[in-house]
Structure formats: structure tokens, C-alpha cells
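call fold(seq) -> C-alpha cells
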Amino acid sequence: FLWKRLGFLRKVSLRNIFRYKKRLFMMVVGISGCTALLVTGFGIRDSIADVAEKQYQEIQTFDIGISLKENVDEAFLEALDARKSMGAGAYTCVMEKNMDFVTDGEVKSVYLVAGEGEEMKPFLNLHTTKGEAVAYPGTGDAVISHRLAEDYHVRVGDRITLRDEEMRTLEVYVTGIYENYIYNYVHISQDTWRELAGEEPEKKTVYLNLTEEAKTDVTGNSSYELAGDLMKLGQVSNVTVNADFMERIGNMMKSLDIIVAVVILCAAGLAFIVLYNLTNINITERVREIATIKVLGFYKKETAAYVFRENTMLTMLGMAAGLGLGYFLHNFVMNEIRIDMISFDIYIRPVSYLYSGLLTMVFAWCVNRAMGGRLEEISMTESLKSVD
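ret:
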């Protein structure tokens, strides 16, 4: 069905591809490795670069976090209300403390956050990695971050044990697993803490949002001016501006561009070595054949197409195999670089597959152009009179 519709030269190219099976295998393996490296390099950047933005714009949506030395009191809340002209907007008071997540034979440090469900909505957006909304937990329940659930094989409906510094334990049921990338969190309601711990939660953390006027401030300094003013209050021990934290993490992630560039250079080197060596061997083995078609009147471009069409076809075959291989290589690399307090979103954007495929074809095109001069150097008379 296909063979009847192919032209003579394409039939010759297919014949040569399957005639030299070792060269076919070596080129497909080499080019697939090149493409897989490219997919992995771009995939690493896709998985890591947007972590801070997702954490502080889509999950923890409050603008400023305030840590207090003592429980929040009316005097501090009045001080917050008095700073509305500086951009202080809505706020909520929560308990945030370090706890041990206890499993069989293992203990993991986590942040326990006890808040009021309805009050938390403007400051925390709980959703699964697929974007489905997760309800804030009720009494006796908990919602945990997805990295914690993955590492300890926790599923919705399981019961987990938390332990504080005084060796008191809390047992709660997991009603939701939400997307989270920085630190490990367990969220419970304040009623849960009152019921299980038998005491009022220590509200030493305040989540604060800026007013709309402050958020649209073109200078972008409103949050920093407000944070600096809050630090002057005697009750305040620390103020964190999420935009600043996001920017710092984002700047650290920019170093990934160097890693991606190195991976691309390595992939280019692999492609050039594979294609150049195998093309050189191909030409050397077929000097008389190439000389013959030149004698028959093939033009320069026709001669080049006759030889390099095979490279293009094999490159496309290797590229297709490399796109699939790159997916698995990327997953392997990302699982090997897991960091305790940071979780990565392991995914590859479709455009990264496109870039990887295009770069592979560009590398092949460059090699074909470089080897074009080699065909011109073949002497028709000398080659035809030589004895094989």
C-alpha cells in the first residue's frame, strides 16, 4: 500500500535504512538520548520554576504573615485596624506550631495550623493537585499537604497521629489532601484543638491581606512599609511579606536556566557526535555509489538529499522515541532530587516537548549542512576507478 506510492529515491532511502541495521539502531538510540536529555532539561525547569508563584499566589493567598511573642490581644488588633490607611486590610488569627507527625517507626516535623474554616477562605485556598476544592476540616478532622500524604502513604479516611513538644498526642481523621509545595502542613479547626488538647489554641500568628488600594500601588512598596511599621510594635517578633519571599525563591530558581543550558549543550554534543560519526561512516562506505549518482547527473542538492534524507528519517524516528523516553527520565531525575521541605510539581509542559523535538531537528540540520562539503570533495573519476 505504501510502497506503490513512494518515489524511486525514497524507496532507495528506505532500502538503505533497513539495509544497514546497525547504523539504524545506533542512530535511533543516540538521537533518542539527545531528545530525552532535552525533554528532561526543559521538564526540570517546568517542575521547579513556578513553585513559589503557585505557593504564594494560588495556595497561601495572604499577603503578610505576622508572628507574635504572646497570644493576640485587643491592643494588637486595634493597632492593625489603625493601620488601614497604610494598606492593612482583612486579617485572621490562627495557631501555628511545630508538631511531630508520628507513623510506624518514623517521626516527621510538620507545621500544625489551627484556624476557623470560614475565616480562612480569603487567606488560604485549599485544593487538590487537579484543582478540585478541598473543604476546611471540621471537628476531629484534618487536611494535610500532598507531599506528606505521598511520603507516608496517607489517604483520605486514614487516621493520623500528631505529637507536640510536651508529648501530648492528637489523633485526627484525614478528610482532604491539598496541593502544597513549601513546607509540610496539617490543618485542623480550632474546635479540634480545644476538644483534643483540652485548652484554648495559642493564637500567635496573624494572616493579613492588603487593601485593594495597596495591592494596586504602582511602586509596590506598600507591603514593605507596612511590614516595617508592624515590626516596631512590641508584640511582634517577625513579619514575613509573601511577595518578598516569592521573589527570593524565584531568583534562586533562575539559576535553573544555567542547568537547562548545560543539558541542552550536552544534548547538542551528543547529537553532533552521533550524527557526524555515523554520517561520516555512511559516506565513506558509499563513496562509489555517491560518485555514480554524480556521474549520472545528480545536482548538488539532489545528491545531498539522496544521502541526508536517511539522516532526517532516522532523526525523526529517534526523536519520537526520545520524547517518550524523556518523560520517564524526567520523572526519575525529579524523584532523585527530592528536598525535605520543598515539593516540586512534576510535569512537563506541551511546549517543552515541542522545543525538544525542534532542537533535535535543528541539530540534525546543522550536521547535514556541515557534511555537505564532504560530498563535494568526492572525486567522481578517482572513486569510480578505485578497486573495492
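The CA atoms of residues 129 and 357 lie 28 Å apart.
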